Amino acid sequence: MGIKLDCPECGQRLRFDLNTTVVECPHCGYKRTNGLDEKIAEVRAKGPRPNISLTSHDDINPRAVSLFYTAHDHLFEGKTEAALAELREAIEIQRDFFDAHLWIAKISPDEAVKRDHLSTILAYNPGHTEAMRMMLVLNGRLTQAQADSLNSTQEPSVRHAEGAVATSTTTLRCPNCKGDLSADPHTGRVVCRFCGYTAESPPKIQANGDLLFAALLERRSQPVRWVIGERLLHCNECGAERTIAADKLSTRCPFCGSNHVIEQDALQSFEQPEGLIPFTITRDEAGARIKERLRSFSERIKGWLDNNKVKAAALNGYYLPFWVFDAIVEVNRTRIDQNPYDKQRWPTAAQAIAQAYQRMTYQEVLGEVEVCAVTSPSLELTGQLGDYDMQELVSYEAGLLARYPASLYTVDFDKAALEARARISLQMRGKYGSRELGDDEDVTINVFSNVQQMSFRLLLLPVWIATLVEEDRDRRIALVNGQTGQTVLGKAIKPEKSR
Fold first, then answer.
1. S-S: 9 plus which of 30, 67, 276, 454, CB 3.0-4.6 Å?
2. What pLDDT score was predicted for residue 499?
3. Domains of the chain from N-terminus onward
4. What is the pLDDT of residue 67?
5. What is the pTM of this model?
């Protein structure tokens, strides 16, 4: 059955086919559709509608979910403002709807709006990878290309530098007379012993640190991670060149005696410290603390079995690098009674079963977990130096290393973070792992710690390091906290037998 129409080309009658919805002139071949072809062509030009799935937790309000998908319908039609309105309404219904926040950050042209919604996501979930990646781009820490590369599982390639790497340094000279600078042992201020110049006291700071998750993402975006064996130092005073070990942050020129502090090397392989805690324990006080420890009862007992009397000693002050971590920790404590039915105090089996398994969750905020960033002295020794008082932290300046040399970190923040997590876990087991009053041997306590967020900073902390040579030729290390005086004695090491 057909419908006759006039052809606009030849004036003859057209025929409409109900099966194909095409109007065609049997005389000249003209065809006219009802607009469906144009619509189909338009949809095909746009491509298929993207399949958007939710990444948020399951308990999202159904109305908020409906608004979310309606927003994507608007986006498919190119209606950005309408999509933003739907997403904002979805967030009004459910504040922690991460996907709605994320898409507002993706499509909004306003940087402040992007930052606000990304911050909301990270406040709820600090481990949200896509939100953190977008925030790093906004903050200029990553380019968009680097952020896109994080979608793959590719890690930076580790390369060992061939030969000594060129280094830029700061020479510690008096701005007035060009004399050698030092630091006053009592005030910590940088002084010149030739003309009396005294620098202003460094300002105290409260270092905020960097989020560990952000730093790890930033590292993954880098194509190469360099491992440095030696650095090449050019003396700006006498022109001499020499190689120095990779763990030196400051050093003196053996030819002219000028003091140099390393700023950076040609491969940008390390970062500078944020702050420093000055020495308050003098060399004489540190020596007295070590002697006091050597006279302790435990050391006298060791002397019965071995001749541990000190024959010679060398004592020097150093600024050692420490990664200092702050963490938000969720602690899950479970109490399991393996035999609850033996207890007469539960009159019913239901009560006994209820008491057999109990689970509690706690939130802990831990600050200033200090992990030494060098391998010598060992972590076992530096971990016993005790806590430093961060209220005395001052802003890092190269001149503060005029009196005591400083080491450069050789343990990177990612490895130090693993040590910090282990210490946090041990501390939480000690706090929550004990049995309660009235518990017997059948009760088991399990404690699991989940670090939800961690930040870190690099600081230089004062340490006195002594090398002790005993009369039997054994060697041992002694450490003194340069701020508090806490003293640690290492184990004696037997001398190697000559062949």
1. 30
2. 46
3. 4-46 (no CATH), 62-149 (1.25.40.10), 283-489 (no CATH)
4. 93
5. 0.80
